[in-house]
Write a structure and sequence with these properties.
177 residues; mainly beta; ten-stranded antiparallel beta sheet; 2 helices
Length: 177
């Protein structure tokens, strides 16, 4: 469920994030396919970002191409590091007008999640981010963002706290208007 920062980071994907202190409790799990990149509950399913929470209109998000893989490591202190690589193309549809765009959002990315609910998402290359109302308030970012370059987010208690980008971004809500 990579790159979906819905007010929190349930989303999403991360690579290149700084490693947490402590040794890994075990070697990373075998590289496995990401079978549900949107966290929809079904392989390669779709989701809808509700109106007035992300954009003023509902946005349907669907998988076009998914060839992503993940490596997950759990450190001694319980910190989880998830690295996602591979190809992911998604479609984004303004469910009011029908306007649809496709975006390569392949990253790669690394997400580091600590047991206390804090963490970091770091993406390189093309990524997508969806910020809920609290994340938008904290970061001053629009609800749907497409980035290219090095993007870093911090999160705590399910809400994005900070956003930084060394690259370019597009406002997805504007693109779909």
């Amino acid at each position: 469920m990579r790159k979906l920062i819905i007010g929190a980071v349930t989303a999403v994907a991360l690579l290149g994030a700084p490693a947490a202190a402590g040794a890994a409790t075990a070697a990373p799990l075998a590289r496995t396919p990401v079978t549900d990149p949107l966290g929809s509950g079904s392989p390669n399913g779709s989701i809808t970002l509700p109106a007035n929470q992300y954009c003023v209109f509902p946005v349907g998000v669907a998988v076009v191409t998914n060839n992503e893989f993940q490596d997950v490591t759990t450190l001694a202190d319980g910190t989880m590091v998830q690295k996602i690589t591979g190809n992911l193309v998604l479609s984004f549809k303004n469910d009011t007008t029908g306007k649809t765009i496709e975006k390569n959002v392949s990253g790669p990315s690394t997400t580091t999640s600590h047991p206390d609910g804090t963490g970091t998402f770091q993406g390189q290359g093309p990524n997508w981010l969806a910020f809920g109302p609290n994340g938008q308030a904290d970061t001053k970012e629009p609800g749907l963002v497409f980035t290219s370059g090095l993007v870093t987010l911090t999160f705590a208690s399910g809400t994005v706290q900070s956003f930084s980008l060394n690259g370019t971004q597009e406002n997805g809500c504007t693109l779909l208007s």
